Automatic annotation (TrEMBL):
This is Tryptophan 2,3-dioxygenase. Heme binds at residue 218. Gene3D superfamilies: 1.20.58.480. GO terms for molecular function: heme binding; L-tryptophan 2,3-dioxygenase activity; metal ion binding. Pathway: Amino-acid degradation; L-tryptophan degradation via kynurenine pathway; L-kynurenine from L-tryptophan: step 1/2. InterPro entries: Trp/Indoleamine_2_3_dOase-like, Trp_2_3_dOase. Belongs to the tryptophan 2,3-dioxygenase family. Substrate binds at residues 32-36, 98, 232. It comes from Frigoriglobus tundricola. Its EC number is 1.13.11.11. Heme-dependent dioxygenase that catalyzes the oxidative cleavage of the L-tryptophan (L-Trp) pyrrole ring and converts L-tryptophan to N-formyl-L-kynurenine. Catalyzes the oxidative cleavage of the indole moiety. It catalyses: L-tryptophan + O2 = N-formyl-L-kynurenine. Homotetramer. One of its GO terms (biological process) is L-tryptophan catabolic process to kynurenine.
Length: 260
C-alpha cells in the first residue's frame, strides 16, 4: 500500500487528540485545546533547533548557526502571533469550561521549562511542579545538569579568541547564566571586526527579543482572561509570570548595545 499524506503525518491519531472535557462540549474548549497542543509542537521544534545550535557553537560552525537562528526567530514570531487566536477567547467563554481543567495548568508544561533550562534560565524549584518518574521530569533533570546554549556560546566565543573567565567555564551548570563584563568586551571586539559574527549576534538578539515578547504577550493574555485570579492547578497566575518578564537569554548581547 502506497504511503499517503495522512499516513505520513499520522493524521487520524493527531486529529483524535482534541477531546473536550465539558459535557455537552463548550464550543470554545476546542480552540483552547488546539492552540495549546500547537504550542507544544512548536516547543518541540524549538528544542530540536536549539540542540542543533548547541552543536554548531561547540563545533564552531558559524553559518549553520546563522541559518538556525533565522529559523528560531521565525518560529518565535509565529508563536507570538498565535496569541492573537487565543485572545479571541473572552473571559466568559473561558470560564464556561475552566473548571474542567481541574488541576491541569500550562504552568506544568515540561517542554517550556525544558526550553528555559536549555536557554540557561535554570530554576531547580521548577522541578517540584513536575511528576517524578515521568519522561518530562527526567528530561528536565538532564537539562538542569547539562551545559546550556549560553555555555555552548562561550565555547564558540573562545574559538574566536574571546577570553572566557574560569568561573564561567567551571561553573555549576544547575545555576542560571549571568552577564559578564569580560565576555562583553570580547563580543564587542568581534561585533566591530567580523561582519559574519555581527549577523549571527543580531539574529541571536532577534530571537531573544522574540522570546521576551512571547512572555509579555502571554502575561497580558492571562491577565485579560483571568485578571488577578490564581491560575488553574493552583499556579500563581500573572504575578508569577511577571517574575520572568524581560529576562534575556543572552544578557551580554544586550549589555553592549549602547557601545555599538
Amino acid at each position: 500500500m502506497d504511503l499517503t499524506y495522512a499516513d505520513y503525518l499520522h493524521l487520524d491519531e493527531l486529529l483524535a487528540l482534541q477531546r473536550p472535557r465539558s459535557d455537552p462540549p463548550e464550543h470554545d474548549e476546542t480552540l483552547f485545546i488546539v492552540v495549546h497542543q500547537a504550542y507544544e509542537l512548536w516547543f518541540k521544534l524549538l528544542l530540536h533547533e536549539l540542540d542543533k545550535v548547541k552543536g554548531d557553537f561547540v563545533a564552531g560552525r558559524t553559518y549553520p548557526a546563522i541559518s538556525t537562528f533565522k529559523r528560531l526567530r521565525t518560529i518565535m514570531k509565529v508563536a507570538v502571533e498565535q496569541v492573537d487566536v487565543v485572545e479571541t477567547l473572552t473571559p466568559m467563554s473561558f470560564n464556561s469550561f475552566r473548571d474542567r481543567l481541574d488541576t491541569a495548568s500550562g504552568f506544568q508544561s515540561s517542554q517550556f521549562r525544558e526550553m528555559e533550562f536549555l536557554l540557561g534560565y535554570k530554576r531547580v524549584d521548577m522541578l517540584k511542579h513536575q511528576t517524578p518518574g515521568t519522561p518530562g521530569y527526567e528530561r528536565l533533570v538532564r537539562r538542569l545538569n547539562e551545559p546550556s546554549v549560553v555555555d555552548a556560546f562561550y565555547a564558540f566565543l573562545a574559538r574566536h579568541g574571546v577570553t572566557i573567565p574560569d568561573h564561567l567555564t567551571t561553573r555549576d551548570f544547575t545555576q542560571p547564566t549571568a552577564p559578564d563584563e569580560v565576555v562583553e568586551e570580547g563580543i564587542l571586539r568581534l561585533y566591530k571586526g567580523q561582519p559574519d559574527l555581527e549577523i549571527l549576534f543580531e539574529l541571536m538578539t532577534d530571537f531573544d527579543e522574540g522570546f521576551q515578547e512571547w512572555r509579555y504577550r502571554h502575561i497580558k493574555l492571562v491577565e485579560r482572561t483571568i485578571g488577578s485570579k490564581r491560575g488553574t492547578g493552583g499556579s500563581l497566575g500573572v504575578e508569577f509570570l511577571k517574575r520572568s518578564l524581560f529576562h534575556p537569554v543572552f544578557p551580554d548581547l544586550w549589555a553592549i548595545r549602547h557601545r555599538l
